[in-house]
Structures
1.
Amino acid sequence: MTPADPATPSDEDLIRRALADREGPAGQAACSELLGRHQRSVYLWCMRYTRDHERAVELAQEVLVRAYRALPSFAGRSSFSSWLFAIARNRCITEATRARLVVDHGADLDELPSGLPDPQTVLEDEQAARRVRDLLHLHLDETERTALWMSIEERLPVEEITRLLGLENATGARGLLQRARRKLRAAMGPHPAAEGA
């Protein structure tokens, strides 16, 4: 995200300052300003996952600490907000998929429902999900994957995605999403209905 005020340093400027003086006061101040600038967005991303204010605050703090520690690995291939969103997304997914087992010692196993899915169906679903993930990673860059995820999973409007990713081109996220979808359609090949025509 690039600030509107030309006197305000951009994210890239703050990253350079933070890395140039990592342990010094100037670097610490730059890093603090950089992460503070994105703190609200990180909290909102976490809140969408948890639907719980306290847990969202905890997760947002974890994400910001991870970003601080990983800042030297930021390569600048995408915007800082996109990179930070990927960290938040991964942390929230881990949180959401963590198993929460409840043991009921008084349960009668004969009374439990037997509607378990067929193991073959589960395996096929996992293989299909893996193929989709591979397709995304092979054919889309990080910003395209993030924009697509924000649109499909987070159901964010195009304007919000444009703002969060710091896109300054004329078409914003709309053009990015169209390009990502075209790449995926080309990668998947012709639609079966089209082949039969």
Note: Residues 15 and 196 are 53 Å apart (CA to CA).
2.
Amino acid sequence: MTSLTFKNLDNTKKQLIENVLLDEFSQYTLPTAKVSRIVKAANIARGAFYKYFDDINDAYRYIYGQAIQQIHADFRIPSEQSNSDYLTEVKNFVERIDNSKYYELMKMHISSNEAFLASQSESFDQKIDPNKMDDRTWIMTVLSHEIIKEILLDPKKKDFWLTRYSNILQQLGEK
């Protein structure tokens, strides 16, 4: 877990480390990311890294969490949404990723790190418990995430995937 020591760093140093983490995890998959590159680029001691983070996975969880927090900043609770609300939320989410400094990180997460973490039995979506969702919310969440994944993996097909998503939502009908 990210330490209070890191959270209490002065903003300039903290921002530098966050930028270095973002660069590292945007360029390298989690299994190939290196603490040595991070500490060199951030100009911190290796011991300081481990004072701030438990390990490389913890550093990844931190920066990925920052990305999700910023991208999901105005996300509405899905259980009360109509199908058109889901479509709007997906479009907005994709737009926020496209215009975000986190674009490459999110793409790397979708293409590699998500599967790696799943194989390590580590979850990032601890707030989303599928066992506590009704069937409609669960399927809409799964479908929304899949559409976002497809768009990130092949941005040229964005319009295709959004149209397909819209068609599927129409077929599903409102609740």
Note: The mean pLDDT is 88.
3.
Amino acid sequence: MAELERIYAELGIDGFAGARPAVEAYLAGLGAFRKNEYRVDDDVAAKVSARWGFALDAWGYPRLGAAA
């Protein structure tokens, strides 16, 4: 919540106090949110690294799989 309030202030957006109750209600509705976990087959990871490794490296993304 503090980070969202900071963003409003940095961008000069008025009305955070009015938006706060809706944001709090939304966050309360998320409950115990957990980020999705994906498992990638080593063969698929190797193919992605072979074909797109240059892009992963350029943008600082980690290589996938055991041979990363």
Note: The longest helix spans residues 42-58.
